[in-house]
Structure formats: structure tokens, C-alpha cells
Design goal:
2 copies of one chain form a homodimer. Chain A is an alpha/beta fold. Chain A has 2 domains: 23-87 and 249-448, Aminopeptidase (3-Layer(aba) Sandwich); 94-247, Glucose Oxidase, domain 1 (3-Layer(bba) Sandwich), CATH 3.50.30.30. Chain A is 38% helix and 25% strand. The first copy, chain A, has 13 helices and 16 strands. Chain A has helices at residues 2-35, 38-49, 57-72, 133-144, 162-167, 171-181, 221-233, 285-304, 326-337, 364-371, 374-377, 414-417, 430-448; strands at 77-89, 95-100, 103-106, 109-111, 123-130, 148-151, 187-191, 216-219, 238-242, 246-260, 265-275, 311-318, 341-347, 355-361, 384-387, 403-409. The first copy, chain A, has an 8-stranded mixed beta sheet with strand order 1-10-12-11-13-16-14-15, sandwiched between helices. The radius of gyration of chain A is 24 Å and the shape is elongated. Chain A starts with a helix and ends with a helix. Chains A, B: InterPro entries: CPQ (IPR039866), PA_domain (IPR003137), Peptidase_M28 (IPR007484). Chains A, B: This is Carboxypeptidase Q. Chains A, B: Residues 1-17 form the signal peptide. Chains A, B: Keywords: Carboxypeptidase, Endoplasmic reticulum, Glycoprotein, Golgi apparatus, Hydrolase, Lysosome, Metal-binding, Metalloprotease, Protease, Secreted, Signal, Zinc, Zymogen.
Chain lengths: 451, 451
């Protein structure tokens, strides 16, 4: 009898709770879409501060600005966390061309982050095209020595999720220089990680791992196509590039943190964040100004609605995702050392595009608990909730048992702008940005009320 | 025994069929994403032809161009269908301003399609702001007579689907002039149907239905905001606008049709289409160049893959969706008269944005048959498949028993460009456009193989 009663009551209680949740989630979206401030905040970050590579003046200003914004919203605590970051600078504008029929064909180029400079007068050598490391190895020292290696394998356009296409091509950028140096190459140029054909070179991090330290740079997809065509008819084409980037001493910097303290379980923390640093070429709008401003907006929205979280909700703007991940690793180290109890960490670092869902890193139970939110979130276009990838900055928190959650916007346009000078405020749609913020706020609300 | 065997075999057969479908759908996406031509075709339509309002030279060129493109693809039949269309012209550039503290404040303005001209010297009158027809009625003739009525109810930003927000505001544009004329207004200006605050006036159709025929125009959202603020402090503000649009005699035009003839049931037709006309202010990229070029791409893709459809697959580029729907109504009338058997009609007329799903108009069985495709289509981001709205041009086909299906891309950015001069080729993302085309091709393939 009791069991039967329980079985009758349970669905009613659940439906009631779901209705309450559904009503509150609607309030979240209404607040963010009608009164959201993320877009205006992003404008300041992009237009008044602009590029903010770790160690730069821009990065410092971004720390000060976002701290000030969070203080103005009256969060319970706003503070900085010390982080020591690498400090790489591009130096003066790079130059590149190749010679075709006696004429210079100029090439849009950008040194890869972490690369060494060329000699002061630049580097001129025969260029040889390869598609992958296997082909490089097969050509070997005999064919490679003394040459500039041109990695030209495009991102695969048939991948529906463009991050998969990125994953299938980015080894050329990250490891191409070290691989080529093993066979005596004197420099490396890499086709930009971009699915479009255009004139923007896309920078990004590279690393030296054995072999010599030879200069490495990205060239635009249009230039890569033209160079490749030229090499078919002129296999001994000479390529020239000059760059004077350098790695300076590590610099002091900060993660920027704000929080609303939990009313019932203040020691349990839910993190929502993005990374504050950007590459030096652009305003870092989609990468990752949007993630930072969405994260602040999550807390602003919950506070504006008078919501008193049970757990502590913490915004973290991580420093140095692009070329070191020192913000993410430092944050996790401190959390571990202080024995902080991080339940969930959500990151937005895939652009400020229209929401698609969340990717979860956790055990089956944890993943199932989140996929159970689907009926509440799908009316907002969040259909893709399940096992997936989280976020670079929050990844290190996994060692503390935290469930890692990546906000997943639509991926189609991301690599049009990624790490290039056209990653500007103008490419961000206000509603798409706000829907992302509201989606994260809705998830934070649901997680705060779980168990 | 037989029945049991059937029950054992049936799921196996279904799984096998699903696997075959899944493999072919992947081929469709691969072809369109790697070798698609919709983007290049759209560039020609937008950049070499441009605006193509019914009756204009642009519309005529667009008919010739798209016929030529389909002929070049070697479809089984390519032909024109006669359509008589309204012919409205904007005339020379409109002008508008209001007077504040003795100064002219210029206002970006665009006559609404179908509106009459102002007098040659323009119209100057006191302006009065209203939010809706109820408020207009309450003010009545005493407050309205001799004035310009300013309809300023914004699209509701809290609607997740922006077409809902459009539906909730567009009565002001369509019927505002007639409503205001009843109370003696001398002109009407309407806040643009746009969720952003910017400087683009968005035109669109209006109709006179009783009352006098007074001139009507859209003003930009920024101007609407400024005018509204001004009216709070200066309630007797004078507004001036001048427009010399006119309605000419109806003109001859065409629907453009191409088809691959069915190999098993050629008399059964599946239509896929968009509308070829656009408003005169812009290139008509998202409205609806993308829908036309996606529809052609559906047939190009199926043909490139060597697919022999069982039914006849027909592309229709409808003329005159924007200000008359003569293409859609004529097409349906002819189909009915000829007793053509149209099974399904799919239209893309919500922009070339990342795909979300399909909206279906049909009975429960028909809707259920399509929602059953979800497992095959959701890997491509098509989650929202169910009862919904179809498309203006294919709507009239419902009378012949056709299932009406609207392709549903993400709606967030559509009204940034809709009917305004910024609806240009540059705002279209190649991959999003192609994913839409592939989504429609996949659905056509599944429908062709249904039953």
C-alpha cells in the first residue's frame, strides 16, 4: 500500500519539480535576452582593450576590467589568483613571399606562437609541400635538408563538427617544426587551420620537442592554395619569410574570480568560466571574450533574479589558455591543495554561437544525471547533451573529481575567425551570445539543485 | 510460425535499411560539403544580379540565370512556368527627418512594399507613437487625425524562435496604414522588424484594406528609439518623409522549374524550392537566394552521386513570394488542374543558417512518418523535426493533399538582415548554406524511398 502510494506520488512530485524548474529556466532566458549585459561588456573588452596575449598590457587591462565589472555587480567575493605565465611577443610585422616567374607573390603570414625568429634579414629557401608526417618521413633528410617545409593538409570539410576537422589537421601546426627539423629543414610554413579560402593567417601554439628550433609560421588558405598550384608547375620555387618574435622571461599575471556564496552548502563549488587571454592578432571576440562575458552574465542573471544558490557559484576567467594553460593548471593545483570541493566546472571556449548542448566528462552516473535535463533544455535548442569534451582550462580540475562540462555552441563558423585578425566583436551576434549565457545559467541552476 | 519469423526478420530488415540509408545520407553530406556549388552560384545571383523584386530587370535576369545553371547540370527537364506578378517600384531614394530643438534629425527610412507615394514635396505632420491597434483605437480620431502614426512595438526578444517574435509584431507593418487611416492619419511609420538596434530600415509588404491609402514606411530601430525618446520630452514633434514609389501594371514573369524524372513512379512528385524574387533594397542573400541555390544543389548532389530517384524530384524557384505569392498560387493551381500528384513539398525560406530541423504541415500519420527519420538526421544537427510551419510558396499545394515541409535553420540571425540592404552574400556562411542543402537532399532521399 505504501509502496503503491509512493509510486503514485513520485511522478507527481517529479512533475511538480520539473514544472518549477521549467518556470525558473524561462525566467533566466527572459532576463538574459531582455536585459543581458554580456554584449556591451564584450564590446569594451574587444574594442577598448583588444588583444590580450599572456604577459601583454592588454592582458593586464583585461584582468583589471573584468574584476571591476564583477565588483560593480556586487558579487559576494571578487579576487585575483596569481598565475605565472609565458611571455611571447610577435615583434614587428612579418613579411613573406614566394618567387614565381621572377615576380614576388606576397603571402599573408603570421608566426606561430612560441616560434623562434628567423635571422634578421629573413629566411630564403626552396619550399617543399607535404601533407603529413608520414610523407615527411618518406622524403627524409635527402629531400628535406636545407628546405622550408610547407604543411598543406586542409581541415576535412566533411566533418560535421568542425572541431573534429581541426583535431585532424592541427598536428601540422603544433608539431610540424620539430618533425621537419629532424630532417634538416630550415623553416616551416603551415596552411592556416581554417575551412574557408581567404586571406587571413591563423596563428596558434606550436612546441619544440627535439630537433632544432626552426622558425614556423601560418600562411592564409588562399596563399596555401596558390603556393601549392605553383609548386606543381615550379617545383623548385623559393620561399622567403621574416619574423622577429621572441620568448621573454615568464611574467606575473592572474586568474580573475568572482563568486556568490552558497546558502546551504557553501563549501561545494560550481565553476563557470572561459579564458581571458587571447592571441595577439585579434580582439579575441569568439576566442574567448564571449566565454568570459557569458560566464559573468551567468552570475549577473542569477543575482538579478534574486536567486540564492545552495552551493557556491564561481566565475573563473582563466589566464593563458592559448600558450601554456598556466591559469587552468594553477587553479586546479590550488583547489587540490586547499581541498576545495568542486562538484562541476563548465567552460565556454568554443565561440559565442547559437547553443547546441553540453559535452560532459565524467562517469556514467554523472553523464546520465545531466542527460536527464534534456526535456528541460531542449526547448532552448540544447539537444546535444552527452559524453563529450569539456574545456582546456577546466580539464585539470578532473583530478579533484570534478565533473567537467563543455558548453557546445554550433561549430560551423568558429574556424573562420579562430586565432586570426578577423576574430572581432562585429562577428558576434548579440542573441547567440546571450542564449549561450542563459544556457549556462540554466545548467548551473539545475546542477545547484541536484540531490 | 510464419508470423514469428516475420517478427524476427522485420527488425533485421529495418536495421539493414536504416544502415543503407545512413550510408547514403553520409555520401550526400560529403558531396555537398566537399564539392558543393551552391555558394558560388549564390555569389553570382547576389553580386552579378542583385535585387530582384517581381517585375524588375533583376528578377528577369535571375530567371534566365537559374534556368541556365540547371541546364548546365543536365537535369532531365528545365522549364519556365508563366506567372503574372504585381509590379511595384520604389522610385528615387526616400528622405525622412524629424525636428528636435530646431534641428533636423535624419532618419533611415524605406517605403513599405505596396505603399503609395507621399506628395511630391513630401509629408510633414505631428507624429504620435502607439504600440498596437488597441492603443490606436483608444486614442481615436480626435488624437490621430492629421497626424503621422508611429508604430513602435518591438519584436519580443524573449522568444527563442525569432519567427515568433516577428509574428507578434508584423501586424504593424502589414496593417498599420489601413488601421491608422480609419482615424484620419495622414501617414504611417513603423519600427523595423529587427531585433538589433542598428541603422537599417527593413521594408516588407503592407496592404490597404479599407480606410484611405496613406503612405507607409519603415524606419530603423535606432531611429525608432531616438524618436520615441524625443517624443517623451517633445510630444508635438514634427516628422517629415518623402517617397515616390508606385504600383505599375502587372508584369509577366516565371517560376523556374527543373526536375529529375522518377524511374519507378514518375507521376509522383517531390518538390524542393525557394523563392527567386527578393526585395529591392538588397541582394536577397538569405531571403531567399540561399533557398533557391540550396534547392538546385539538392538535385545537383543527387545526380552527382548517380542516384536514380523512384519519384520525380522537382526544383521550383517561385516568383513573387514577397509581394503577392503569385508564383506559389499559380504553381498550385496548375498542379491541381493537371491533376499532378505532389506527395511532398519542401521549402527553404528561413535563411541559409545552420540547420535545426524541419517543420511539417500534415496529418498525424504524415508527421509521424517524418519524425521517424530523427535517428538518421540528428547526427547532422537536425533535432527539431515535427509539426510546424511549412513555407509560403508551397502552402497553396496543401489543397492537393501535399505534405508541406519547411526547412528550419537556426533563426537567431535572420531578422538582422531580413528585407534590408545588409542582406548580402557576405553574411552567408558557406558551410551553413551547404549543410542546409545536404539536409534537404537527405530528406528528399528518405521521402523518395518511403513506402
Amino acid at each position: 500500500m505504501l509502496k503503491a502510494l509512493f509510486l503514485v506520488l513520485l511522478p507527481t512530485v517529479m512533475v511538480f519539480a520539473q514544472n518549477q524548474d521549467s518556470i525558473f529556466i524561462k525566467k533566466i532566458y527572459d532576463e538574459t535576452l531582455a536585459k543581458g549585459e554580456a554584449y556591451d561588456n564584450l564590446r569594451v573588452l574587444c574594442k577598448s582593450i583588444g588583444p590580450r596575449l599572456s604577459g601583454s598590457t592588454g592582458a593586464k587591462k583585461a584582468v583589471e576590467y573584468t574584476k571591476k565589472v564583477m565588483e560593480s555587480y556586487g558579487f559576494d567575493k571578487v579576487f585575483l589568483q596569481d598565475v605565472t605565465v609565458p611571455h611571447w611577443t610577435r615583434g614587428s610585422k612579418e613579411e613573406a613571399y614566394f618567387i614565381k616567374d621572377g615576380k614576388k607573390i606576397n603571402v599573408p603570414i603570421a608566426a606561430l606562437g612560441g616560434s623562434v625568429a628567423s635571422s634578421k634579414s629573413g629566411l630564403m629557401a626552396e619550399v617543399i609541400e607535404v601533407q603529413n608526417f608520414k610523407e615527411l618521413k618518406d622524403l627524409g633528410e635527402q629531400k628535406i635538408k636545407g628546405k622550408i617545409v610547407f604543411f598543406n593538409r586542409p581541415m576535412d570539410p566533411t566533418k560535421i563538427n568542425t572541431f573534429e576537422a581541426y583535431g585532424g589537421a592541427v598536428d601540422q601546426r603544433g608539431g610540424g617544426a620539430s618533425q621537419a627539423a629532424q630532417y634538416g629543414a630550415v623553416g616551416v610554413i603551415v596552411r592556416s587551420m581554417n575551412l574557408r579560402n581567404d586571406d587571413f593567417p591563423h596563428t596558434g601554439s606550436m612546441r619544440y620537442a627535439g630537433g632544432g628550433m626552426i622558425p614556423a609560421a601560418a600562411i592564409s588558405t588562399n596563399a596555401a592554395n596558390e603556393l601549392s598550384r605553383t609548386l606543381k608547375s615550379h617545383p623548385r620555387t623559393q620561399f622567403y619569410f621574416k619574423q622577429n618574435c621572441q620568448t621573454l622571461a615568464d611574467a606575473p599575471s592572474h586568474n580573475v574570480i568572482g563568486e556568490i556564496i552558497g546558502s546551504e552548502k557553501p563549501e561545494e563549488i560550481i565553476v563557470v568560466g572561459g579564458h581571458l587571454d587571447s592571441w595577439d592578432l585579434a580582439e579575441g571576440a569568439h576566442d574567448d571574450g564571449t566565454g568570459c562575458m557569458q560566464s559573468i552574465e551567468v552570475l549577473r542573471t542569477l543575482k538579478a533574479l534574486g536567486y540564492k544558490p545552495k552551493r557556491t557559484i564561481r566565475v573563473v576567467m582563466f589566464m593563458n589558455e592559448e600558450n601554456g594553460l598556466k591559469g587552468g593548471t594553477t587553479y586546479a593545483d590550488v583547489a587540490e591543495k586547499k581541498k576545495e570541493k568542486h562538484l562541476y566546472a563548465i567552460e565556454s571556449d568554443s565561440g559565442g554561437f547559437t547553443p547546441r548542448g553540453f559535452g560532459i566528462v565524467g562517469n556514467d552516473n554523472q553523464v546520465n544525471a545531466l542527460t536527464a535535463f534534456k526535456p528541460l533544455l531542449s526547448p532552448y535548442g540544447l539537444h546535444e547533451i552527452g559524453r563529450g569534451s569539456g574545456g582546456a582550462d577546466i580539464g585539470p580540475l578532473a583530478k579533484t573529481g570534478t565533473v567537467i562540462i563543455g558548453f557546445k555552441p554550433d561549430s560551423q563558423r568558429y574556424f573562420d575567425y579562430h586565432h586570426a585578425s578577423n576574430d572581432t566583436f562585429e562577428t558576434v551576434n548579440k542573441r547567440e551570445l546571450e542564449l549561450g549565457a542563459a544556457s549556462m545559467a540554466a545548467l548551473v541552476y539545475l546542477l545547484d539543485n541536484l540531490n
